[in-house]
Specification:
- This protein is an alpha+beta fold.
- The protein has 3 domains: 57 residues; 90 residues, Protein of unknown function (DUF541), domain 1 (Translation Initiation Factor IF3), CATH 3.30.110; 103 residues, 2-Layer Sandwich (Alpha-Beta Plaits), CATH 3.30.70.
- The chain is built from 6 helices and 10 strands; from the N terminus they run ααββαβββααββαβββ.
- The strands form 2 sheets. Strands 2, 3, 4, 5, 6 and 7 form a 6-stranded antiparallel beta sheet that branches. Strands 1, 8, 9 and 10 form a 4-stranded antiparallel beta sheet that branches.
- β4 and β5 form a beta hairpin.
- It is elongated, with a radius of gyration of 42 Å.
- The chain starts with a helix and ends with a strand.
Length: 260
Amino acid sequence: MSTIEGSDSDREIGGPDSAPRKKRSFRSHEQLVGLIILSVAFIIGSLSVSSGIRGRDQSKQNQISITGSAEEAVTSNTFQWTANFSSTKSTTSAALAQLNGWTIQIQKALIAAGALNSEISFGTVNVQPNESSTGAVVSFTMTQTVNVQSSRLDAMQRVLGVSNLLLSNDVPFIAQQPNYTFNGLKKLRPILTKEAAANARQRAQAALGKNVTLGKPISISVGQVSVDAPGSVNYGSGDFNTSSIPKVVSVVVYATYATG
């Protein structure tokens, strides 16, 4: 009896149930080691990120971003004025005849007002057939454009009065607003850009004070050239004013400098 009990006891101690305990114990050690490795990696990663953020903040502290600008007052040197006139008749020949008569009237009126023949140009005639509700063509509308372009701005002020004169004589002269432009932007832009860059550096140094050294530029970008009427400030907007004879041309520079 004792021998059998001893055998049962042996099976209980070293039998099949003991293997899962060893496996569970070994697995627990693996999980613990994994957690330790993960924790160490997390700490190292946190230190690296912290160091990177400090380095980036430090880099930003050693630079300054500033805006510089330059402007110059100019006077428009080109006048351009466009108008159109139309005739609607039952036949193309009748519409064209009326249109040609108006062309002669318009040209004579413009020259009488001070425009030169070389400053006046007429566009091609555009023909538009007009249909009834049934789809049949009942008339034709012919339209032509006239353009006046000159560098003699003073002389052109009288020319603008032609519009009312022609309308009073039953000529359907539909005029647009005159455009005044300055054609020296190509030469002026690099000059103003250089002045705007110098202005940016002066402003950056003034912002830092005398005790901080302003270093080399890290980046410089140039905004659009703006052409505005006097009194309106739209630096870098890219506006192109054509309504006024006097204008202000401006350029903006966005710069970042290293600081010592």
